Amino acid sequence: MATRLLFLFFSLIFPILTISSPAPTTSSTGESSIELIRTHCEHAIYPKFCIKSFSKYADAIRPDPIHLVQLAANITVNRVRGLSIRVSAHARAAAGPDAALLLDCAEALADAVDQATKSATELNAKGSEVAVLVGNVQLCMHAAVVDQDRCSDDFDRVRPGLVKDDMSRRIRQVKRFTMNAFSLVNDVVRAVP
User: Which residues belong to any copy of the Pectinesterase inhibitor domain (predicted)?
Assistant: First the structure.
């Protein structure tokens, strides 16, 4: 079981780390990756959370707003997928009305994974043509947020306890991440000529 979880962990994290080889952190205009993150995250829904979340990846981010959005979409997919797996495991272990609520939440998160994956796939395939496909990316990211809302609504009705507290915190964190990725897409698209 531990080997399987370790494999799952690395299979989710490795694509993030290999999105590109680390590029120099300054562009020809002198804008560093950290400055790029701060510039675009200040327009995010949760700016402090955005800066904190993406600063960890500064060495892997080219000083290019499109690359930042691609990274945000890929990380969102991995975060939502991880949460979906965790909620599904709790749903299988639960009994009574909580089991049904957790299964509904797991289904909503599976839908969110699909939507976030569509966004990431389009961004990774089109790259610099992001302005052309922004409608699809925005629609898919918005759908991922709505699906996470559906899960949150289900989770509000789960009986109080450690599982609810832990999962509620995780759902809020992943939702913040997704909403920031969505706002980064919107911000970067406004900046693209």
Answer: 32-184
Instruction: Please report, in angstroms and rounded to a whole number, the separation of the first and last CA atoms in the chain.
Output: 49
Break the chain into its structural domains and give their ranges.
63-191
How far is residue 71's CA from residue 59's CA, in Å, rounded to a whole number?
Answer: 12
- A 10 A CB-CB count for 52 gives 12
Per CATH, domain 63-191 is 3.40.50.300: no
Structure tokens at 27: 């562009």
The residue whose two tokens read 């780390």 is 17
* Beta-sheet strands, E only, within 16-113: none
36 and 65 in contact (C-beta within 8 Å)?
Answer: yes
Q: What's this model's pTM, rounded to 2 decimal places?
A: 0.73
Determine the distance from the C-alpha atom of residue 72 to the mean position of all C-alpha atoms in its chain, rounded to a whole number. 6
> With 90 as the cut, is the pLDDT of residue 48 above it?
yes
Total length of the chain:
193
> What's the pLDDT at 13?
37
CB under 8 Å to 135, separation ≥6 — which residues? none
Strand, helix or coil at 32? strand
CA atoms within 13 A on the CB side of 100: 3
Amino acid 112 reads A
Average pLDDT over residues 122-148: 71
pLDDT tens digit sequence for 82-109: 989 998 998 888 888 888 888 888 888 8
User: What is the spatial distance between Cα 108 and Cα 84, in angstroms, rounded to a whole number?
Assistant: 9
